[in-house]
Design brief:
CATH architecture of the largest domain: Roll
Strand content: 5-15%
Strand order of the largest sheet: 5-4-7-6
CATH topology of the largest domain: Chitinase A, domain 3
Radius of gyration: 36 Å
Order of helices and strands: HHEEHHHHHHEEHHHEHEEEH
CATH class of the largest domain: Alpha Beta
Largest sheet: 4 strands, antiparallel
Helix content: 40-55%
Number of helices: 13
Shape: elongated
Number of strands: 8
């Protein structure tokens, strides 16, 4: 059993080596378009030689230093560094044997190689045409000014309301709501039960976020909202005006009186970020956008370059059959489908597989005692 577990541990270590090390070709071969840097001679000395190929000091350094700082710190220990190099050698021996067995002709291996080539090609193109340093200060300033509300914004508040036509009834509802001060669900039930404003009623009484100087919200509601301290706090009844349709009116445009119970539902704090503080985030955002644009542009270039060799047969799409069924496990039950969790919304949830009952063998009757021997005569 111990040898069995050791074998698994060795395979696990080897898999980690695959992930950390990569192939020998990644050390020896440079992608097209990459400029070879001047390297000191001692960095080109071989550390590992496998099948006539060499892994140099620089190759090992690059591989170790490409890792997370917390991981590479361990390789300052000579023993750990030696294990790392041994892992590289293990990988190369396996790669050499795989090549001898003809795995490089395997369709899955060839597809993986194609994927790696495409990925590396796009990395080089993006480095050349869309580096982070290519984002100018003017581009950052333009973005900042165009999206100023993202970086400079006063405190805003959001409330939920119960609208009633009678002040006395509003006081009764406030008393009832006060019993469930921090219970949003109960407040929403009261909204559905009592509120006469269909527009806010559909949203559980919620209104939009607004600042203290809001021009599109009646001042009575704004003042009441900013008088509350914590989310869940209640106030009212507050006198407001409704329009002809029975909705909360815009300031100065109401036609009849109403009273509201107000619950503070959210506080959006003040934001005051200078362009210098926002620059790293804006640069990152513009860089990601530029990368996407460059990638699309580059692919379009290639499509134009190879247009005589590309033909898409859209009339054959109907022949492609998409299997939407879910596989079943060996016991004949469907595997778990995360999209079917929400049973409360009417989606049937597949119950978890029940454990098979363990059938215990029936207890054997106790053996009958052997008969006593007859007395000797």
């Amino acid at each position: 059993m111990r040898n069995y577990m050791k074998s698994f541990a060795f395979l696990g270590t080897l898999v980690v080596s695959f992930l950390l090390v990569g192939t020998l070709s990644s050390y020896a071969v440079k992608a097209a378009g990459e400029k070879k840097a001047d390297v000191p001679k001692e960095k080109l000395l071989p550390v590992i030689e496998v099948g006539g190929k060499s892994i140099t000091v620089k190759d090992v350094e690059d591989k170790i230093n490409s890792q997370n700082p917390f991981l590479r710190k361990r390789y300052t220990n000579p023993d750990e560094k030696k294990k790392f190099i041994e892992g590289m050698a293990d990988f190369e021996v396996l790669a050499m044997e795989a090549k001898a067995l003809g795995y490089e002709k395997n369709p899955k291996v060839q597809q993986a190689m194609r994927n790696a080539m495409v990925q590396r090609q796009m990395e080089v193109i993006l480095q050349q045409r869309a580096s982070k340093e290519s984002i100018t200060r003017k581009e950052i300033e333009d973005y900042y000014n165009k999206h100023i509300m993202e970086f400079k914004r006063p405190e805003r508040r959001r409330v939920a309301v119960i609208v009633l036509s009678d002040e006395k009834k509003a006081k009764e509802v406030l008393k009832e709501a006060s019993q469930f001060k921090n219970n949003l669900r109960k407040f929403q039930e009261l909204v559905r039960k009592y509120s006469i404003d269909d527009r806010t009623k559909k949203r559980g009484g919620l209104m939009v976020y607004f600042p203290k100087d809001a021009k599109n919200i009646q001042k009575a509601i704004v003042d009441a909202a900013f008088s509350l301290k914590n989310t869940g706090d209640l106030t009212g009844p507050v006198k407001i005006r409704l329009d002809d349709k029975g909705h909360i009116a815009m300031p100065g445009k109401g036609t009849k009186d109403a009273w509201v119970i107000i619950r503070l539902s959210g506080i959006s704090p003040k934001i005051d970020q200078s362009i210098d503080d926002a620059e790293p985030r804006i640069r990152e955002r513009l860089w990601r956008k530029k990368q996407s644009e460059v990638a699309r542009s580059y692919i379009k270039e290639l499509m134009d370059k190879y247009k005589d060799q590309i033909k898409i047969h859209e009339d054959k799409l109907d022949l492609v059959r998409v299997d939407t069924s879910y596989p079943r496990n060996p016991f004949g039950q469907r595997f778990h489908n995360p999209s079917r969790r929400r049973g409360r919304h009417g989606i049937k949830v597949i119950p978890p597989m029940k454990a098979r009952p363990q059938h215990k063998p029936a207890a054997k009757p106790a053996p009958k005692p052997a008969p006593m021997p007859a007395p000797m005569k």
